[in-house]
Amino acid sequence: MARVVVVSNRLADPRKAAAGGLAVALGDTLNATGGLWFGWSGKVVDESEGGTPGEGELHTHQAGNVTLATVDLCKEDHDSYYLGYANRVLWPMFHYRLDLADFNKQSLAGYRRVNQMFARKLMPLLKPDDLIWIHDYHLIPLAAELRSMGCGNRIGFFLHIPLPPPLMLAALPGHEWLIRALFAYDVVGFQAQADVNHFERYVHSEADAEMLGDGHYRAFNRTVLARAFPIGIDVDEFAQLTHGKEARETYETMREQYSRRRLLIGIDRLDYSKGLPQRIKAFQELLASYPENRKSATLIQIASPTRESVDAYADIRHELEHLCGQINGDYGELDWMPVRYIHRTVARKRLPGLCRAGRVALVTPLRDGMNLVAKEYIAAQDPADPGVLVLSRFAGAAEQLREALLVNPYDTEGSAQAIQRALQMPLEERQARHQKLLERIRAQDVHWWRKTFLQTLENAQP
Ligand SMILES: O=P(O)(O)OC[C@H]1O[C@H](O[C@H]2O[C@H](CO)[C@@H](O)[C@H](O)[C@H]2O)[C@H](O)[C@@H](O)[C@@H]1O
Ligand SMILES: O=c1ccn([C@@H]2O[C@H](COP(=O)(O)OP(=O)(O)O)[C@@H](O)[C@H]2O)c(=O)[nH]1
């Protein structure tokens, strides 16, 4: 295979297990092809330290066979590109939250400036046969910028978040420009078939695209292949982590503390897309409608801090903390609290232990590209005595994980009923559902995802 060049906003050293399955999986291919991983260094340079908009120092270093090339961002670029256009405009709009989108010309200008700068820095590092794989909403216009500099390589794009329906997308000022930029790619990958359907309807109605069949669309004088490539996890790696020292410690502590109680778990970034207030309300409804769970069911909710300088994230934190305080105040006893809320990132090595100890996992986003936690929970279970996954029908993962208990997170009573059903589910049914779910996450794991995408890109006509 040709050399692979991965471009993403964040990157990680693929040799470090803490980087997670995705970095390790991309690392395999990068390592095998002597590849390059390009993106933001994570460093923000203040003006007083010489930071200039549209400029950033390039750093390169070797991680085994992989070259990591990163660029610093000045504060103005970070605020307008990452906090501004990416996370105050595209993230809410693509998660169906038009009410939270805060569109302005400055953030769009910063988004374009950083994409242009990335293209300028990346272009001299490219070789003619490189396969270039660009990731996520931060970098949609990058291929168009590269093309304008004469890049003729095959370029693929994978959107990790959902694509909204056409009319919702049309509410974004400049949506035509953004979607036109997708036609600079050869292959565009989405998480779910629902996203592909939205893309097809949008390009048909707004861009007058020709449908060439088999996922090929022609518009703006270019042809693009758009298809769903649902991202998976490294099932064996996660299952292996379950037997590691930290995971075992966590598992044993949890089992000891909850031996006479039933443990429910939630593991999310504290993002408004994850449906955390709705989840707490459903849990409250469970305690109200099924009182046998009082003094027994406990929800450990990890809500790891994220994008804290964006207002909507501060607001969701207040709302969640208010609800957790309320439920604990209303139902808590001297020796039992219904919710244990943890506003910290829990080390990846510990998560499998927590997952395995959880009788029920609540994965109930209002909208989510995929949701890897749902798959990690399945991978961590003991097949002889597995827990039950309660999954939002609005997570990309729901297209694959049909044997989970699917819920509508806006329906508080329906969600409470599903949680009760999960808590009461007989062993045989738990085993049967888990076996099927495990087959599904194994069939389309992260290695399948990476290979399928890259093969499709390699076979695409440049
Ligand atoms: O980089 P951050 O701003 O700190 O955010 C973390 C990542 O969040 C998003 O994750 C998405 O990708 C997952 C894997 O494909 C998917 O399961 C999930 O549903 C998505 O929300 C974001 O898309 C990443 O770029 C961020 O790095
Ligand atoms: O405290 C935490 C919370 C989450 N995660 C990991 O972060 C990823 C979250 O991915 P997901 O697709 O569920 O959602 P995202 O946060 O990317 O929207 C998963 O691998 C989790 O195991 C973690 O390591 N520690």
From TrEMBL:
| Assembly, per entry | Homotetramer.
Q: What class of enzyme is it?
A: transferase
Catalyzes what? D-glucose 6-phosphate + UDP-alpha-D-glucose = alpha,alpha-trehalose 6-phosphate + UDP + H(+)
Q: Name one GO molecular function term.
A: alpha,alpha-trehalose-phosphate synthase (UDP-forming) activity
Family as reported in the entry's similarity comment = Belongs to the glycosyltransferase 20 family.
Spell out the Gene3D superfamilies in the cross-references.
Answer: Glycogen Phosphorylase B
Q: Which InterPro entries match?
A: Glyco_trans_20, Trehalose_OtsA
Q: Which SUPFAM superfamilies would you find in this protein's record?
A: UDP-Glycosyltransferase/glycogen phosphorylase
Q: Supply the alphabetized keyword list.
A: Glycosyltransferase, Transferase
**Tagged with keyword Protease:** no
Origin superkingdom: Bacteria
Recorded E.C. number(s)?
A: 2.4.1.15
Q: Which organism is it from?
A: Caldimonas mangrovi
Mind telling me which CDD domains this protein's record contains? GT20_TPS
Which Pfam family, any one, appears in the UniProt record? Answer: Glyco_transf_20
Q: So what does this one do?
A: Probably involved in the osmoprotection via the biosynthesis of trehalose. Catalyzes the transfer of glucose from UDP-alpha-D-glucose (UDP-Glc) to D-glucose 6-phosphate (Glc-6-P) to form trehalose-6-phosphate. Acts with retention of the anomeric configuration of the UDP-sugar donor.
Q: What is this protein called?
A: Trehalose-6-phosphate synthase
Membrane-spanning intervals of the chain: none
Pathways per UniProt: Glycan biosynthesis; trehalose biosynthesis
